Amino acid sequence: EAAKYEKKVMVLDFVMPTPLGNSWGLGGTCVNVGCIPKKLMHQAALLGQALQDSRKFGWQFTEEVKHNWMTMTESVQNYIGSLNWGYRVALREKKVTYENAYGEFVGPHTVKATNKRGVEKLYTAERFLIATGERPRYLGIPGDKEYCISSDDLFSLPYCPGKTLVIGASYVALECAGFLAGLGLDVTVMVRSILLRGFDQDIANKIGEYMEEHGINFVREFVPIKVEQIEEGTPGRLKVTAKSTKGNQIFEGEYNTVLLAIGRDACTRKIGLDKVGVKINEKTGKIPVNDEEQTNVPYIYAVGDILQDKLELTPVAIQAGRLLVQRLYAGSTSKCDYANVPTTVFTPLEYGACGYSEETAVEKFGEENIEVYHSHFWPLEWTVPSRDNNKCYAKIICNIQDNERVIGFHVLGPNAGEVTQGFAAAIKCGLTKEQLDNTVGIHPVCAEV
Amino acid sequence: MGWEEKQVRGYPEFVQTAQRYHGRPIFALFCGDKDAEGRSWCPDCVTAEPVVRNELRNMPDESVFIYCLVGDRAYWKDPNNEFRKNLKLTGVPTLLKYGTPQKLVEEECFKAELVRMLFTED
């Protein structure tokens, strides 16, 4: 965007390899080890389900359908490779200088870039934008870095993970557990306390229930204390020992793969921010910025997952970045609107949401001032193959004091992301319950509920 | 050792040649056929060829550069021709690094900088 306004721009992108030596190309987390491969693998799992359903719709095939991990992973990685290449071409065409080097501040207006061969170069600039994102957190227990994998490794794993233990209850943990099970693997999820912290808990529990009923094992209220290797191999065999959070019970299990998904930490500690005086939250590593994405140092800005108190979503980061550049170089005054940002969790039963969760709405407006409308629904496509008839669910939360304005939208069901996008636009326009009631539904689709 | 060039015509010859050099970096430039005077029916190919040839020295050692004539205009326009179907080519000229998603299509091939980037990318 900045290059559009004739600015001289340089991008420093470098991926520190994972403990197991994995790295990737230009594009950041979303493209390489996040949203893109995740959605593709989720789709692979959905297609498996569709193949099962198809028999009830009249498709006849006698062979048992099996899944090949390598075929899927190769296709996914190939697509990601084309995206990496596309970005390289786009940057070049727009005359943005790109260096595959690790950047860190060494003094005012100056960064040092170190490439993978250790060669250092110094660069100065008028302004800097930090968008270094996050990396998966490790547990800090014996065997974690040597034997466990994270989402950074999963999407390019050169062998099928086999029987897998997922540690964590974040959306990353549940989405991965979901598609791995959907591909036919034996999956267990170890949860310390609640599922999907920060999301509507009523829905989080429904998601957990659905996953459990569909063959994913849950081990609740336990934390792992060590991981040992029983046998080497691709995959090998690992033994996990865990302790209960509520007593002295010990849990032991054997798995081919252990996937850690307990959270992500901002990459802000080793980029020399102290040398230029940028304040970070010491505890979380996040950077506080004003509503113009500016840090406490006027010529240094930040966007994306590293920002304090802001949503960790790709489109939010992109929007914030674009608007920032337009404000700096094209005379715009638009600021990034972080309210009512829609999001979707691609668990086996997808969850789309926009606005407040029920708990947060009650906290902010008071229980007597909000009204919740909800309904279970049975997608027409699920009737014939006799799939669950009481699992899909939708609810809206309205603010009674403000014309019953819709302040929270939640839907649990197939294609939740597609459904939510339209409603997000309506909510941005100030949708009220009455307007929603007056909108004629499309039939037969899930969204008409 | 430097690099070497192989000139081929048509899909089967291309595949045979690419397979023979499996293990070495292979770059391929696909152009429309040339007439008796050596001019291609594809004007963009005429523009791109000198740009690409000028950058060949930037290919890594041991590289193989395959210069492939795809066929006449009628063959190329057929949506089911083997290059479109099997190599997923969408236009000529196309310059690609065989076995990777890295490629440059049509006007992208006119830009020396992009061509150089394709040849020198890890």
Automatic annotation (TrEMBL), chain A:
> Required cofactors, per record?
FAD
Q: Where does NAD(+) bind?
A: 168-175, 263, 305
Q: Where does FAD bind?
A: 39, 103
* Cofactor binding description: Binds 1 FAD per subunit.
**UniProt-listed Enzyme Commission number(s):** 1.11.1.2, 1.8.1.9
Pfam families the record matches: Pyr_redox_2, Pyr_redox_dim
Q: Give yes or no: UniProt keyword Membrane.
A: no
Please give the PROSITE patterns that the UniProt record associates with this protein: PYRIDINE_REDOX_1
Is Chloroplast among this UniProt entry's keywords? Answer: no
Domain FAD/NAD(P)-binding intervals = 2-321
- Give Gene Ontology CC terms: cytosol; mitochondrion
One of the record's GO molecular function terms: flavin adenine dinucleotide binding
One annotated GO biological process: cell redox homeostasis
* Protein task: Reduces disulfideprotein thioredoxin (Trx) to its dithiol-containing form. Homodimeric flavoprotein involved in the regulation of cellular redox reactions, growth and differentiation. Contains a selenocysteine residue at the C-terminal active site that is essential for catalysis. Also has reductase activity on hydrogen peroxide (H2O2).
In terms of NCBIfam families, this protein maps to:
TGR
Which family is annotated? Belongs to the class-I pyridine nucleotide-disulfide oxidoreductase family.
This one is known as: Thioredoxin reductase 1, cytoplasmic
Organism of this sequence: Burhinus bistriatus
From TrEMBL, chain B:
Q: Which Gene3D superfamilies match?
A: Glutaredoxin
Listed CDD domains: TRP14_like
Record GO cellular component, one term: cytosol
GO: which molecular function terms? protein-disulfide reductase [NAD(P)H] activity
Q: What does the UniProt entry say about where the protein is found? A: Cytoplasm
The question of whether Disulfide bond is a record keyword is answered with yes
* Keywords, ordered alphabetically: Cytoplasm, Disulfide bond, Redox-active center
Do the record's keywords include Cytoplasm? Answer: yes
Record's superkingdom? Eukaryota
Checking InterPro entries in the record gives: Thioredoxin-like_sf, TXNDC17-like, TXNDC17_dom
Q: Name one Pfam family in it.
A: TXD17-like_Trx
Residue ranges annotated for the Thioredoxin domain, each copy included:
8-121
Protein family per UniProt: Belongs to the thioredoxin family.
The name of this protein is: Thioredoxin domain-containing protein 17
Q: Source species, please?
A: Burhinus bistriatus
Which lineage?
Eukaryota, Metazoa, Chordata, Craniata, Vertebrata
